Amino acid sequence: MNWMKNNLRYNRGSAAAKDLLEQNGFDNLLDFPLDLFASGLGATVIEKELLNSDGRIIFGKKHTIIEINEEIEFEQKKRFTLAHEIGHLVLHKGIEIHNDNESTTSWFNNKEKQARNGRVEYEANQFASELLIPSLLFIERQEGKKFSPQLLRDLAVYFKVSITAIAFKYFQLGDHPICLFHSHNKKVSYWMWPDNYPHYIIDRTRLTPPEDSVAMEFFEKGKIYSKHQSKQQIWKSTWFDLKSSQSDTDFNFYEYCIVSNAYNSVLSVVWEE
Ligand SMILES: [Zn+2]
């Protein structure tokens, strides 16, 4: 059964979010203001100008304050940042003031960064993901639907989160196996593939994306495909090892790039049909 999936295995962050929703009588927070939810938990949310920071939490003796950068361009990102801070509020009471930015609220950091930021950031992100995209509801919403970039976009709108957050959730819980490759400044920094994936990914840490990848088209030519063209066919050998007994024409692989111009980064969603 779907909900028995491996990826639903226990992790502290999402378990805490699930418990919190349940204790407060919510199935989800799709129609409930997140700042009100935070204040119900005892934190005051303030939007203000923040330098080099998307959000932060300040534990005082009596009051806890969550500050969110008012200049965050996308509402979905504001939501995720606030959910991340609520994660700290619930899970990490009393941690020192720290600033959250692209490097702590991103799923796709390189490994050294993850080690440095440690478990705390990982848990806060897992918490945020479950709070905003409850797993059971997510599974239900995507069930029986063919995987496509449009499906990810539809889910992102429904859950009011970024496509990146949805892509990560889909990787964990979606019906169709997908791989994720994150590239930053023309270097591949991180990738993920499902358990038991039948194709082997060549190690590209700190190397440029493959010459014939859609990600490279962005870095080299600034090419960003329109919605209708965002599903691009690629060769198996673009991202995977092609065995000598195999031919590229035997496979149907596709790449969909989620581009962040501001950070010069690309998340490539790669799948086989
Ligand atoms: Zn954080």
Characteristic key phrases:
5-stranded antiparallel sheet, disordered N terminus, 4-stranded mixed sheet, binds zinc ion, 9 strands, 273 residues, Arc Repressor Mutant, subunit A, 10 helices, 19% strand, alpha+beta, Beta-Lactamase
Question: What features would you describe in this structure?
Answer:
- InterPro entries: IrrE_HExxH, Rad_response_metalloprotease.
- This is ImmA/IrrE family metallo-endopeptidase.
- It comes from Aquimarina rubra.
- Residues 40-169 form the IrrE N-terminal-like domain.
- α7 (149-159) crosses α8.
- 39% of the residues are buried.
- The protein has a five-stranded antiparallel beta sheet, sandwiched between helices. Strands 1-3-2-4 form a four-stranded mixed beta sheet.
- With 273 residues, the chain is α+β, with helices and mostly antiparallel strands.
- The protein has helices spanning 12-23, 34-40, 75-91, 102-105, 111-132, 135-142, 149-159, 163-173, 214-221, 236-239, and strands spanning 43-48, 55-59, 64-69, 98-100, 179-184, 187-192, 232-234, 253-260, 265-272.
- It folds into two domains: 2-135, Arc Repressor Mutant, subunit A; 177-273, Beta-Lactamase, CATH 3.30.450.
- The longest helix has 22 residues, at 111-132.
- Residues 1-8 have low confidence and may be disordered.
- A hairpin with a 4-residue loop joins β2 (55-59) and β3 (64-69).
- The site of zinc ion has 6 residues, from α3 and α5.
